[in-house]
Structure formats: C-alpha cells, structure tokens
Amino acid sequence: MRNSTRSGVDPFIVMDVMEAARKAEEAGRHIVHMEVGQPGTGAPKGATAALAKAMEQGSLGYTVALGLPALRKRIAQMYGEWYNVDLNPERVVVTPGSSGGFLLAFTALFDSGDRVGIGAPGYPSYRQILKALGLVPVDLPTLPENRLQPVPSDFAGLDLQGLMVASPANPTGTMLDRASMGALIDAAQAQSASFISDEIYHGLEYEAKAVTALELTDECYVINSFSKYFSMTGWRVGWMVVPEDQVRVVERIAQNMFICAPHASQVAALAAMDCDEELQANLDVYRRNRELMLEGLPKAGFTNIAPPDGAFYVYADVSDLTDDSRAFAAEILEQAGVAVTPGLDFDPERGHTTLRFSYARATADIQDGLERLRSFMAERGALQPV
Predict the structure, then answer these.
(1) Mapping DSSP to helix (H, G, I), strand (E, B) and coil, where does residue 91 land?
(2) Confidence band (pLDDT; 50, 70, 90) for 171?
(3) Where do the DSSP E strands lie in the chain?
(4) 162, 179, 251, 303: which has the highest count of C-beta atoms within 10 A?
(5) What is the pTM of this model?
(6) Is the bond preceding residue 342 a cis peptide, omega within 30 degrees?
(7) Would you place residue 11 in the very low, low, confident or very high pLDDT band (cuts 50, 70, 90)?
(8) Phi and psi at residue 255, in whole multiples of 5°?
(9) How open is the CA angle 234-209-70, to the nearest 5 degrees?
C-alpha cells in the first residue's frame, strides 16, 4: 500500500537506544539508563490508592472531552498556588499526555503549510508531529550565550505562523526567565504568530521557579503533563490551558480525535496533585543526582555542558571527542554499559557532536553510571587513569 508523504517522519532515536539497551539486558548485561527522560519512581501512592478505590466503586467509562471537572478545577487551583495566577478552570483541557496536547494545539492553530518555529536543540517530536500534520517546522539554531534558548532575533523576518518554546527545556534543562519569556511572546505577537509554551518540566527546578507564559499573557497555549514532576509517564495524561475563545475549538477536535483522556488516569492524576510530600522527596533525589552529574561528568571528560536549571538532563558538547554522536553513544553502551542519547534527536544539524545524559533514575544508578563513564573514557585515552 502507498504511504502519505506526511508519514515520512524520522525515528525517535532515543527509542532505538532504549531497544539496544533492552537487548543488552536480555543478553544478561546490567545497563545503567541515562538515555530516557522517565522518572525512576512510579505514580504517587495516593494516586494508585485513589484509582483502586474508584475501580471498586464502579466502572470507568468515557468522560467529557475536556476532562473531569474536578481535575480541571484542581489544575487551575495549582496555577494559583505555584504562580499566583488566577485561572478560570474552563480554560483547562485534559489531554492524553502532552503528545495529545501537541496534536490538539497544532491542529487548532495552524493550516497545512504553516511555518512553526522551534528551538534547536529541542524535543524531536515537535518536528515530527508538525511534519505529520502537513506543517513546516522551522528550526531556530540557538546559541550557548543565550543558554540554548531562542531569542527574538532568531526568528525575525522568518514569516512564522507559530512559535513553540520549552522551559525547562529538553534536552538542555535550561530555563527562560520572565524577561526572556516576555520578549519571545512580544516578538511572536508582533508577527501574528501563535505562542505555545511547553511546560511539562515545571516543578523540576533547582535554583529558581520556572516562569509560566500565563504570568505574562492569556493569548497563548500552555501544554503540561503529569509525566515528569508527577512521575506518571505511562498513564498518558496531561493538560492544556488555552484562551477562553479557543476552548470550544479544541473541544470539538478532542471529541473527534480522542473522545477523552483515559478516565482511570484522570482519577489518579487528581489524587497525585495532593501528594506533595512524596513528590518533593522525588525532587530531592533529582537534586542530588544533578549535583553528582555536575561534579562527575567533567571528571569523566564531558566538560562542555549546558546549565541544567531544571528537568533532569545534562546536554554536553562532545565535539572534542567525536563527530558522530550516534556511533559514540553506541560505543558507550557497548563498552561501558551506559545508555545515553545522541544529540541528533534534538538538533539534526549540530547534534552529531552532542549527547544528552538523563539523571532521572535512582542515585545509586547515577553514581554507578558516572564511574563507568569515567573508566570508559580513561580506557579510551581521553583521561589519565587514576
């Protein structure tokens, strides 16, 4: 059968790395996972308990397309608690993960052929979802002096219909401060480009609170998820906040694309939002892991790294070590037993000289992985053995 031109999306390389790691483990090897952005913890205990109770009380069927009213209200309440933003719950749309949010946002805002700017390096699925919808992703190569975040001059005169930003960002972990976020919003609005803010790593910050676009404007789409801070990756539940005049537009699309986000996941997500003690304990683990990475990676020879303000990643320039990050990552997996992600996922033009390291797993795994990396680099001749 023929395939559409829209189906010609690139693979998500980190998934290929995960598969290679799985095969190595199947063969009996112990692999340290620094490749995937998945918390080592599961859903909060309060979330699973709430779901068990709900399942005992009756079947879980369809919800309305916008999501459980109680969950939408609780999400709106969180914006007051976290950011002092008074948010109307009617603007909240519960989605099947942030991926469902991207599909809804791109479908609601853009026509075929529209150009949407995305920072490079950036989350690879932005680019591929845009392509699959017949849209044109426009990479905006970011600079180290701008913390690998886009600035208005990066898209001046590019005739964009949309701009997507992420803070904290994947793969870099860098964040936009209030002034930088405001400048991007103003520049996008000046050329009538819709502004979308990916905030799925909010809550995972270490030195300063992340800024939500909703602190600065109501004329934006904000996308978030229960996958990262709330440690619920496999539950596939997230949310969007949209302007009031966009709610019905998104609702109609959601009704037809998804019907609703999984009811069970919505029940668990609602309970997860009140599991502060457990979630903060998880954050303490990431904070310790971040300290270990910032100390251990330079000792292992990875010295040129972006400042990881949030999320649970370190993005390293390895141009002094390789010009083929995919082969280098495969060598690290084979020789050191550590799975890391080649930068080609995040930056097709410059990613051949970068790697992403995730520190989302248990601290003992991070310590083990760093020691393996140091030994590997010493044997490779990049370090003096100690």
Answers:
(1) helix
(2) very high
(3) 32-33, 92-95, 115-120, 136-141, 162-166, 194-198, 221-225, 238-241, 304-305, 313-317, 338-339, 341-342, 354-358
(4) 162
(5) 0.94
(6) no
(7) confident
(8) -55, -40
(9) 50
